[in-house]
């Protein structure tokens, strides 16, 4: 095997180990109390190795936020279709989102980001601004359905935020803040069905479900 390839794989493994250790340390001690020394010890690498990958704790935290950002956009979501029932399309989007929120790695990243934001409002503002750079999949769908005259809302962003809130109240905040177990598949389906029905009862125009 090419020694350069072997070295690169080892380097990549160390980088992954450093990020994983940082997530655990940030969760255990908080951003401000976490040191690069503790991250290196938990990762089983030298502090020099940590700094080779990440020049500062802020850079390492930014990488964790990037991973959270990447995870929250798991490929292109199904686009709005004028020829399909609204409920069928909405259920697909909701179940897709619930699958993400059921992922332990995603929830760990979210806990780190939220905890750091609580202790540093400036960091939280930066994070929110970053996440707002791209419209969320549900917002894109609501906007398209409203433009097509099948949903009645003058503010698609507000309507989409309501939709998100209905889901996150059961499948995100209890897990992130209170350590509640992730929803089972049956619970996810029940939540998706109920959320879709409530949302469409409020916003869908007649004969557009």
TrEMBL record:
DNA-binding stretch(es), residue numbering of this chain: 35-54
Keyword Metal-binding among record annotations: no
Sample GO molecular function, one term: transcription cis-regulatory region binding
HTH tetR-type domain location: 12-72
Keyword hit for Transcription: yes
Superkingdom per UniProt: Bacteria
InterPro entries, alphabetized: DNA-bd_HTH_TetR-type_CS, Homeodomain-like_sf, HTH-type_TetR-like_transc_reg, HTH_TetR, Tet_transcr_reg_TetR-rel_C_sf, TetR_C_Proteobacteria
Pfam families: TetR_C_7, TetR_N
Keywords assigned: DNA-binding, Repressor, Transcription, Transcription regulation
Protein name: HTH tetR-type domain-containing protein
Organism: Paraburkholderia ultramafica
Classification of source organism: Bacteria, Pseudomonadati, Pseudomonadota, Betaproteobacteria, Burkholderiales
């Amino acid at each position: 095997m090419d020694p350069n390839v072997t070295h690169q794989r080892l380097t990549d493994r160390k980088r992954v180990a450093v990020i994983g250790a940082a997530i655990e340390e940030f969760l255990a001690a908080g951003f401000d109390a976490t040191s690069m020394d503790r991250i290196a010890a938990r990762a089983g690498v030298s502090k020099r190795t940590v700094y080779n990958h990440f020049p500062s704790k802020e850079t390492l935290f930014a990488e964790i936020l990037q991973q959270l950002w990447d995870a929250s956009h798991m490929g292109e979501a199904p686009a709005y279709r004028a020829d399909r029932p609204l409920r069928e399309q909405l259920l697909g989007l909701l179940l897709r989102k619930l699958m993400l929120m059921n992922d332990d790695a995603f929830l760990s990243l979210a806990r780190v980001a939220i905890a750091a934001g609580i202790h540093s409002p400036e960091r939280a503002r930066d994070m929110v601004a970053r996440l707002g750079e791209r419209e969320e999949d549900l917002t894109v769908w609501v906007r398209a359905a409203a433009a097509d005259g099948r949903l009645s809302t003058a503010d698609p962003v507000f309507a989409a935020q309501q939709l998100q809130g209905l889901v996150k109240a059961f499948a995100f905040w209890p897990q992130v803040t209170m350590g509640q177990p992730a929803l089972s598949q049956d619970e996810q389906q029940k939540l998706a069905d109920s959320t879709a029905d409530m949302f469409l009862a409020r916003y869908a125009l007649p004969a557009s479900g």
